[in-house]
């Protein structure tokens, strides 16, 4: 039963990937040259969805919060920044190779997957019992008393404790030993013939300037946050910002990921949306809770269901953090991190003070003293968010009469095309009328004109790209200036006056609908 669900989910994921390609959402990069590992291009639909997600995030930060402002810093930065931030010395992943298949894995991910499997095993026992006992089933009691569940749980907890300790001690031998002790096999070769675990730095580097005048080794930024930290005083002074305040940024980041699988979940070039919130020392945990709640609400407002999200507190706190959690989303391949929320103390600004020799302090008029602010960060991957939105929206439906349709039930505010404008037939003046409507509406929201194929086929195409509304222009339109609006999710149809069309669609697709729910 369980394996069946997994196989089905894998199947759905495969279909989603090919759907993305077929309908212009995501293409493999450099495809005519057989692609480039873990690099992807966004197509004509993808770029619109991506821009809409960016806008939802940006507006929720910068528009809704008077004390959050944005910047756009360069990708290239002074190399010492990455010394100060710790990335040169410690931005590593523990990697391990299988000697048989020659495949490379992240040792920590192998163990995390193993732990997730143990959890699934326990859940399966519980589900089995729930079916057996019916309504009288007391899940909590069962989990606490059933010998088999307890045995699994104890073993899982032991491995988990060893894993957390090994990570914290950066004990690579112990990581390997856990893999050996848990009998974790390579999914490709099926063998347990593993190499040692080694550290691997994830930063890409390149050279700036010609060698004759001394080229400088520089890095492609692995996160956008450092661009915010080094501009902290510029923004604070020129914007006359008072603590607490935040700086938001959206931009590309680069990581030479060891294991680059799962489509746009783990890419080597990706985009981050980060906000660093500067607070007085001692206030950081209060703000950490504040942003945790706000960020979860931002996700849940999209309406995919609260059960699809959960918090996952970190096993290993970075040495500078005093609190950290992830927001995980239920992808077709399990719950996975989409966003991180971290209380980073004064580590970053203090490090940049040390390495640059410049003061990065704030004079607090209320306390009448200067200090290095503490930072609470919210950091979300745009591409992962994109994947979560698509995974949650993708549906295959069987209609009455046995016909099937594939649709993306995207939140209307995020949909690439808001309204499709469809003349019923390609004659009798209907195309001209449809064009005239489009010329009016195109200033308000994105419309797509389509006159090719039967109306049924055109509806299916719009369903597949996630267009929430179609307006069909027929002979009656020429008589009484009304059109049929067809709703994507219910497939219901309604006749409305052309005069009301602009306002009706604008209201239903406005980003304001989402933003108002978060600012309550
Ligand atoms: P992971 O553990 O999955 O490697 P991380 O904890 O290293 O992620 P952070 O450094 O906290 O990730 O980065 C913040 C966010 O950036 C992540 O929550 C994720 O959404 C996104 N992100 C990080 N690495 C990648 C990647 N290689 N491809 C796409 N998105 C990424």
Looking at this protein, list some descriptive labels.
single chain; 520 residues; alpha+beta; BirA Bifunctional Protein, domain 2; Rossmann fold; 7-stranded mixed sheet; 5-stranded mixed sheet; 18 helices; binds adenosine-5'-triphosphate
Condensed summary:
With 520 residues, the protein is of the alpha+beta class. The two termini are 42 Å apart.
Question: Roughly how much helix do the residues carry, as a percent range?
Answer: 40-55%
Rounded average pLDDT? 94
| CA distance, first residue to last residue | 42 Å
The major beta sheet can be summarized as: 7 strands, mixed
Number of helices: 18
Question: CATH topology of the domain at 2-79 and 222-390, which one?
Answer: BirA Bifunctional Protein, domain 2
Task: Report strand order across the widest sheet.
Answer: 3-9-10-16-13-12-11
CATH architecture of the domain at 2-79 and 222-390: 2-Layer Sandwich
- Number of strand elements: 23
* Radius of gyration, taken over Cα atoms and rounded to an integer in Å: 26 Å
Shape: globular
CATH class of the domain at 2-79 and 222-390: Alpha Beta
Poorly predicted tracts of residues: none
Class by alpha and beta content: alpha+beta
Name of the CATH superfamily of the domain at 2-79 and 222-390: Bira Bifunctional Protein, Domain 2
Strand content: 15-25%
**Distinct ligand kinds:** adenosine-5'-triphosphate
